[in-house]
Amino acid sequence: MTRLLIAEDDPEIAMLERDYLETAGYEVSIVDNGQQAVTQALKGGYGLILLDLMLPGCSGCDVCRLIRDRIDVPILMVTARSESVDKIRGLGLGADDYIPKPFDPAELVARVKAHLSRYARLTGGAQAEPEAIVLGGLQILPQSWQVFKNGREIKMPNREFALLKFLAEHPNTVFSKEKLFEAIWGCGYMGDSATVTVHIGRIREKVEDDPARPSLIQTVWGAGYRLNRP
Questions:
Q1: Of 85-99, 116-130, 151-165, where does the model show the most confidence?
Q2: Taking a C-beta distance cutoff of 8 angstroms, is the pair 140, 147 a contact?
Q3: CATH number for the 133-227 domain, one of 1.10.10.10, 3.50.30.60, 3.20.20.70, 3.50.50.60?
Q4: Dihedral of CA 49/54/57/63: which sign?
Q5: Where do the structural domains in the chain lie, given as residue ranges?
Q6: I need a surface site. Which of 4, 97, 144, 186 has the fewest CB within 10 A?
Q7: pTM value surpassing 0.70
Q8: Measuring CA to CA, how many Å separate 230 from each of 96, 134, 215, 218?
Q9: Cβ atoms of residues 12 and 20 within 8 Å
Q10: What are the CA-CA distances from residue 229 to residues 18, 216, 217 (Å)?
Q11: Regarding the domain delimited by 3-124, which CATH topology (the fold level of the hierarchy) does it fall under?
Q12: Do the two domains 3-124 and 133-227 of this chain adopt the same fold?
């Protein structure tokens, strides 16, 4: 049974989320502050984390920042704050989705199922180890989901890796943000193409020698993004 972690300081909302998710067949644990969320998340064993933005002690964004590079499971922000800057910040820290309050519990369950299903597909792998993709000092290992730069491993959440791998498998080809969003997140994902921009920025910070002047993943203004490969 898949275990889920809910970090929510409003007991009524936490119980509502738990009841619907348990009815859907998941095992649910609840914490009500940021410090507990970090501790429980890093213990591992959870398939997905529902993270309220306004947690006492340590905000949801801080929790996401502290755990994102250490665990690779879907993180869904659930919050009453709907300003676009909060959404962009959460996605920029590695959250996979953003669910505003008040929400339809049935929709919440549907999003959880969709993220778990997509995560399973992204991490399922093939039987044989595909050949490493080498881009100068950058090495991408598709089967083991690892990236190395000049021999040092770079930690990447699953969708960052999937996006980098997709571009590397189609070098010197321009893809619009909409095409990349459809390829990595899928048509049923409740988001928009701005998610692509956020993830491209995070990838550049990790793989480019000078993220402010990217040479590997370039922006083609008015068209999209292209990964350059000699």
A1: 151-165
A2: yes
A3: 1.10.10.10
A4: positive
A5: 3-124, 133-227
A6: 144
A7: no
A8: 32, 11, 12, 14
A9: no
A10: 47, 8, 10
A11: Rossmann fold (3.40.50)
A12: no
Give the amino acid at 146.
Answer: Q
Place of tokens 């910040």: 89
C-alpha–C-alpha distance, residues 171 and 152, integer Å: 23
Query: CA Rg, the chain, in Å?
Result: 18
> Which amino acid would we find at residue 51?
L
185-214 pLDDT, tens digit each: 876 565 677 889 999 999 999 999 999 999
CA angle 12, 14, 20 (to 5 degrees): 100
